[in-house]
Amino acid sequence: xxxxxxxxxxxxxxxxxxxxxxxxxxxxxxxxxxxxxxxxxxxxxxxxxxxxxxxxxxxxxxxxxxxxxxxxxxxxxxxxxxxxxxxxxxxxxxxxxxxxxxxxxxxxxxxxxxxxxxxxxxxxxxxxxxxxxxxxxxxxxxxxxxxxxxxxxxxxxxxxxxxxxxxxxxxxxxxxxxxxxxxxxxxxxxxxxxxxxxxxxxxxxxxxxxxxxxxxxxxxxxxxxxxxxxxxxxxxxxxxxxxxxxxxxxxxxxxxxxxxxxxxxxxxxxxxxxxxxxxxxxxxxxxxxxxxxxx
Length: 295
Fold this sequence. Notes:
Layout: E1 8-9, H1 15-18, E2 23-31, H2 38-48, E3 55-57, E4 63-65, E5 86-93, H3 105-122, E6 136-139, H4 156-174, H5 188-203, H6 229-234, H7 240-253, H8 261-272, H9 275-293
Parallel strand pairs: 1-4, 2-5, 2-6, 3-5
Antiparallel strand pairs: 3-4
Helix pairs in contact: 3-4, 4-8, 5-9, 7-8
């Protein structure tokens, strides 16, 4: 069994020794619907139920670990342990009694650090799970198979944080990128380099001239029935989420593009962490890409 060095060990017995082994392939985050400390969560698992999570993270940023990550814990229903021996690592996080509050800064930091360790220790891939059995990162309500009776866990605000802060933060740190950069002045050489890398490394060197209509989007020009790749990237992009959505949209409509999940995640995390930097990069790169594609 594996124990996270950033956690306080609070081992549950007999579960820690008696429950079957798993090969961890997923990390699923929860809200416990109580403002409990990591110690109080341990006591609840120990004294009041036969369920448990691997980790608990409280408002103070204390991480408790109750079971080794290579042993089954029972917080994720069908993801606890599958027939092939794979299973999910689970983390309960302190919340208000309606699970409506966002994670605070300390919780966000510990979730990111734990996610990076799970990637490095167990090889959990840097992607959001694409199905209930797909390896990657997720939150409890992402798939119905992870809950026996349906759930909104970890709550609307935390789901948004997972998508915009936690997962991009895990990817950024695991790949050596900074998540705390201030606005940076970009030179023409910087912009040219970024544009070339986006085009050549992600989209491929070939210029994509057009995608056949219909293209049902607010940006569609009824006067021009050809939707062009140049037109899509030239439109100003001001946020990391919009950049990711646009990249995925282009990828879905052009089968020739070969873009991995890691590349998508890395691109998203590079622009999602700092709105000012994201706007500067996205707008200038869009212009440079349009110029290059017109060559």
